[in-house]
Amino acid sequence: MLSAEKEPIYASDPVLKFTWVVKVRGASPQSDQVRQARQEIPTSPRVQAMLAGRDEQGRLPFHPYQKWLGAHWVLALLAEWGYPAGDDTLFPLREQELAWLLSPTHQKNIRHIAGLTRRCASQEGNALYALLTLGLADERCDELAHRLVAWQWPDGGWNCDKHPRASHSSFHESLIPLRALALHARLTGNADSQNSAERAAEIFLSRRLFRRLKDGSVIDPHFLELHYPFYWHYDVLFGLLVMAECGWIHDPRCKEALDWLESRRLPDGNFPADARWYTVTQREVSGRSATDWGVTSAKVHNPFVSVLAHFVLKASGRG
């Protein structure tokens, strides 16, 4: 087992420290140590880099969904790492996000084909999760939850595939709504959100988080890679993280995925990032990040992947 005193993997960033202290070490959220750790998050160079482009109205000069610089992605990442809740300087980013998702133009992108709603539900899911976590939610977030429930496919998930013959949900489009609806249910007691989250969880659990139902083969080799940030992409670590947050990590169908995660442990006790979904560059290219998120190497640990992996293993009783 890794010792935080021997190998302080959170030392490079306040967001890592908060997650390590709360989720891995299990410190009380009311403790002075946790309060101090949380207060330091806005000073993180990564957080400051993500928020640096705001204008005088506090908005980011991008479409909310512009990868990976728009308000949608910034709010999701702030929520991931415990940014202090209720910060009213984030209200303009919330308004950018919701003005986009609730706009008539956005609604026109929703298709109903062969009796199924074709929707990139990770968008509403990320928004709902972020705004609830950051203490920025209002009645419009209940509307996002209502829409996700209404768009759910018979097998329990969501998909934006417009091919009429598409009949199975997408792992990429289903995990984030599951995460968001489970949180919405916990915070509001909404039974529809809870039932929807439970149905969605079965998509992943029935497939052991990465295997096909029909023959047990691996659904996608990228699922068996470690990444951070996840953005909208599914991998086994992201799946296990959501199972841990939502209370399904002790389901025996998580065992094989947990075994695989443990097999990726490096000699120092931490975990690598195999690949990344972003580019750090000054050029105006799609997928540009305002900051990097640690080394990508099979032999050197990535602190962001490591902290989340340790949390998952602790939550499962293996930490």
Automatic annotation (TrEMBL):
Gene3D superfamilies per record: 1.50.10.20
Top-level lineage group: Bacteria
InterPro entries in UniProt: Terpenoid_cyclase/PrenylTrfase
UniProt-recorded name of the protein: Prenyltransferase-like
